[in-house]
From TrEMBL:
Subcellular location: Cell membrane; Endomembrane system
Similarity comment: family membership: Belongs to the amino acid/polyamine transporter 2 family. Amino acid/auxin permease (AAAP) (TC 2.A.18.1) subfamily.
GO molecular function terms listed in the Swiss-Prot or TrEMBL record: symporter activity
Role of this protein: Carrier protein involved in proton-driven auxin influx. Mediates the formation of auxin gradient from developing leaves (site of auxin biosynthesis) to tips by contributing to the loading of auxin in vascular tissues and facilitating acropetal (base to tip) auxin transport within inner tissues of the root apex, and basipetal (tip to base) auxin transport within outer tissues of the root apex. May be involved in lateral roots and nodules formation.
Membrane topology term: Multi-pass membrane protein
Protein name (Swiss-Prot/TrEMBL): Amino acid transporter transmembrane domain-containing protein
Residues annotated as transmembrane: 20-38, 50-70, 90-109, 130-150, 170-194, 223-243, 249-268, 280-302
Keyword terms: Amino-acid transport, Auxin signaling pathway, Cell membrane, Membrane, Symport, Transmembrane, Transmembrane helix, Transport
A GO biological process held by the record: auxin-activated signaling pathway
Taxonomic lineage: Eukaryota, Viridiplantae, Streptophyta, Embryophyta, Tracheophyta
Pfam families, A to Z: Aa_trans (PF01490)
GO cellular component, as recorded: endomembrane system; plasma membrane
Sequence ranges assigned to domain Amino acid transporter transmembrane in this UniProt record: 5-302
InterPro entries: AA_transpt_TM
Amino acid sequence: MFGFLWKIVYSNIAPNGSLKLYHFIAMVTVVMIVLSQLPTFHSLRHINLCSLFLSLGYTFLVVGACIHAGTSKNAPPRDYSLEPKKSSRAFSAFTAISIIAAIFGNGILPEIQATLAPPATGKMIKGLTMCYAVILVTFYSAAVSGYWVFGNKSNSNILKSLLPDEGPSLAPTWVLGLAVIFVLLQLFAIGLVYSQVAYEIMEKKSADVKQGMFSKRNLLPRIILRTIYMIFCGFVAAMLPFFGDINGVVGAVGFIPLDFVLPMILYNKTHKPPKSSLTYLINMSIMVVFSGAGIMGAFSSIRKLVLDANQFKLFGSDVVD
């Protein structure tokens, strides 16, 4: 996504290629360093609300653009056929499962935050319900509309399909431009929210709870630690512009066990249902099925990494989908 934003925003500013993708990531990192100084997760509540509206606005624009492209006289040809080899279809399916698990892993954050203060159950249910409702509305509507228009040629970033490198734009330019702006702002919000967990861990050791949040004793370590953390994240993002493939591995190895296996284990250990009970059997079935899905997902995701390895280039400007 960073690569696509960079091409859109700066294609007319630096047509000779003097501005690279990592330059754009460095600019974004500077903005993130400033925004990351918001001291607590609670202080992000207004940014979280803006993030919700940005997600809904982006989805509305993308779905509208897809409908426009699909019903226009220049509508692209559509091919809904699957990959010819059964093995390739199976590998793609497990990779997709891993990516979906990573997407729905967004629910882990409100769950973690909710357990920090009582009553945990009520807050957790509200947070997760809102989280999954937004995911269903945004991700699936964009995915379905994009697949309807472009079939199996649909890009993982639907904006790339709507605004191809060759040929005219398939939707009004102002619509796609506004969608790009929404994405950029959304990336800031996402980065702030997910970084807050790391900040909480770091500042448990560096902060003095007996002094004020904005006291010199707490302010200076917070600025230094958060700045270093953001610089590190920006460096990794610039160095590895092929995070899409890595995302599948992360979903398989990290989110599938965390989302589907670990909760079943903890439930069985905490509540100790009888081994002959339906609850215990369902939990064990979920553990077995998703452990297998995680293993296959990790294998297929690593396989895709290997197949795309010849396209990888450190600090490159071409993003591998």
